[in-house]
Amino acid sequence: SFPTRRSSDLTFNRVLGIDEDDFLRATSGTIKLGIEFKDWYRQGHRYMHAFGALGRPLGMTHFHHVWRRANALGLDGDWEQYVYNTVAARALRYDRPGPRRRTPLEPLTHAFHFDAGLYAAYLRRYSTARGVVRTEGKIRRTILNAFNGHVEAVEMEDGTRIEGDLFLDCSGFRGLLIEQALGTGFEDWSHWLPCDRAWAVPCANGGAFTPYTRSTAHPAGWQWRIPLQHRIGNGHVFASRYMGEEQARDILLSNLDGEPQAEPRLLRFTAGRRKKMWNRNVIAIGLASGFLEPLESTSIHLVQSAVSRLLMALPNDGIDAVEVDDFNAKAQAEYERIRDFIILHYKATERDDSPFWRDCRAMDIPDELARRCRVFASHGRVARVFDELFLDVSWIQVFLGQGVIPRSWHPLADQLSETELKDFLGEVKDMIAREMAVLPSHADFIARLGTS
Fold this sequence. Notes:
single chain, globular, 7-stranded mixed sheet, 3-stranded antiparallel sheet, alpha+beta
């Protein structure tokens, strides 16, 4: 068995020594067991990309091969009932694994929902308490070294000059240093990911207090729903070639759980990445490095991943071109594999009810993604390369959820008789049921945290 993805926010906090309960209180956070995709494969259909294991392995055979054989025999059609994370999420339940677990199932795997502004403030307090010096102000101009073209200093509006050997550009879409000063260039991916606008608005809590994000497909994009302790975050990501801004705004406002708590805010973006994340002595982090729509909640991961990669390559005697090239190669690969995972949601669909979805179905896709689709559709194998964010079971769940059912399965799954196959599947369901019988509600778990 294997995890669905690397929960980078959880890992990042642990490396910093941040207490999880304190973090959840400070950021109005909740638990995230996965992402529900509604109306993506076809209207009226839903599935969960859960952050936990799919079933349990049978020896060296991954569970989905066993399920696929049972499915071919007409024994079982619902793979989601074997995902502990999904069953718990649908039942609105969560708890940390206790010392006396009742089954050999993998425990629930979680990430977080949290208020990004509160998280930023939390990390600011955490950093300054440990000696980080913060200088407030606006940058008036960037000063380049006349000999090597490196950024030598930034000059603030009040005339303060801040020099440095290495600069991190966290200036968002503007790319103040990486692009405006160094002219690094941008690789546009909008031919694969045409959504280029998003309306965002918080609303009052209402409906189920879900331990999962919901993504609902609309005629020219999709809507997110993220439940926090104090509100629900909502947004409508859409392609302006297919839908006007006011129509997109109306769709968002007509699909809220509660009263909006602010005026909707419009964001404009282009999917893609900088041609180099590290150029000369500038490293772009976050939106300055590129943008991928938040369909699989990867934006903060990309920030934390870049920070971790920088720490591994931190120069101690000047900037080494070898380290720079390695950093850029790894960053490029990470962006491209996440890009491909997002494209899969759009490409593998039966929807043909709007020009947007018809064009998504018909579009050419990157060669590497096309190869992965062919391999999985053939025998259910995930042709993943090493060290990606999304591991095998993430790809498996999205493939299955988007209707890509393998034609065959691994021959080791044929070693069970039909009776043994039924017993094995029943055993997995019984294990999940035993865990569910004692699992508290997500609301009760959050209530136990108290308030900050």
